[in-house]
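can u do me a favor
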């Protein structure tokens, strides 16, 4: 190919044009990278906030996003104050960024998810805030209502099917529920309680399936909209208190005599033994409460911690984030499978221990 001076001139102009474009592109890319780096420096990924947000209660059902771009389902805020009841949607707080004007001026504190009352100066009115009784429909309350609705629907439909066709072989939901019911009755209630087991079976079945369903529902804390009702100590405390009340009411004379004055034990020893036995009466429900709460919460925290490692290392470099993601996802899946086992195991353990407490309360003296 013959190159003329005109051709050389065109090539020179083309090369100069490309060089100018490249310089502008590099400059623009550098500015964009610097801007992103500045934004990243200002707002880093907060793993603790992510974990606490998923395992704690909230006045809204958070789905995804953060700040103004967050997607969440607002829930009713119901407050009882010195001026009476006050009800409004949690969406008016705009994720804690705005205040709500009603009988008082309310603000939602992001750090502890508590509603406080502000005075005219915009500061927290400690006296008025201390008088708030918060009975809002929070995420955990909504989860509890949802689980109760699902359990009622499941068991009423199964009961209707049995009533309609009592001799038909179980199928569908029946085939899943029936083995669990028979297991709780024959392997938990009968051996642990004894001849009077029948009146305790409805409670044992209720508490088993309620815990199991909410444990399974809590297996999605790393997904959008995940709830953690079984990891809420108020939920486990109420169940433990119910078990304590049933045990106390059904305690026989022999049961209480064994606690306050154990037969066959010298009286000087009773000075030490009786306080221990009385303390044990209250420690049993306390252990029930802590065991379920700690096991479910710990599993969620571990799974979310592995998941958060992807973003923590991703802030350092893209390569580190991709490298850690393989191990992180593998461990998260492993913890998910382990939590699936724990979901059934903890429901069984709570039910078994409750049945054993009932059995000890009903035990008669041996002669």
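np, heres the sequence
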């Amino acid at each position: 190919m013959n190159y003329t001076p005109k051709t050389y001139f065109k090539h020179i102009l083309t090369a100069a044009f490309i060089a100018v474009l490249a310089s502008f592109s590099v400059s623009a890319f550098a500015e964009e990278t610097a801007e992103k780096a500045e934004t990243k420096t200002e707002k880093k990924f907060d793993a603790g906030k992510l974990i606490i947000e998923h395992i704690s209660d909230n006045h809204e059902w958070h789905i995804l996003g953060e700040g103004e771009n967050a997607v969440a389902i607002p829930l009713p805020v119901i407050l009882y104050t010195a001026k009476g009841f006050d009800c409004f949607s949690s969406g008016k707080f705009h994720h804690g960024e705005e205040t709500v004007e009603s009988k008082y001026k309310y603000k939602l504190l992001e750090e502890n998810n508590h509603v406080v009352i502000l005075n005219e100066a915009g500061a927290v009115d400690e006296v008025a805030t201390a008088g708030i009784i918060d009975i809002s429909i929070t995420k955990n309350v909504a989860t509890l209502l949802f689980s109760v609705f699902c359990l009622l629907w499941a068991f009423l439909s199964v009961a209707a099917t049995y009533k309609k066709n009592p001799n038909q072989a179980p199928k569908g939901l029946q085939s899943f529920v029936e083995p669990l019911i028979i297991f709780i009755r024959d392997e938990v209630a009968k051996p642990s309680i004894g001849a009077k087991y029948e009146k305790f079976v409805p409670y044992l079945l209720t508490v088993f399936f309620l815990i199991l369903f909410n444990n399974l529902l809590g297996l999605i804390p790393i997904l959008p909209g995940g709830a953690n009702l079984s990891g809420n100590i108020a939920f486990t405390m109420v169940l433990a208190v119910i078990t304590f009340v049933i045990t106390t009411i059904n305690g026989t004379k022999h049961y209480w005599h064994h606690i306050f004055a154990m037969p066959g034990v010298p009286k000087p020893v009773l000075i030490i033994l009786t306080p221990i036995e009385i303390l044990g009466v209250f420690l049993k429900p306390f252990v029930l409460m802590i065991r379920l709460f700690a096991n479910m919460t710990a599993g969620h925290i571990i799974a979310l911690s592995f998941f958060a490692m992807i973003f923590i290392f991703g802030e350092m470099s893209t390569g580190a984030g991709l490298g850690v993601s393989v191990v992180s996802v593998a461990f998260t899946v492993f913890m998910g499978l382990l939590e699936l086992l724990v979901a059934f195991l903890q429901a069984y353990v709570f039910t078994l221990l409750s049945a054993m407490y009932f059995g000890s309360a009903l035990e008669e003296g041996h002669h």
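Confidence is low (pLDDT under 50) at residues 15-41. hope that helps!!
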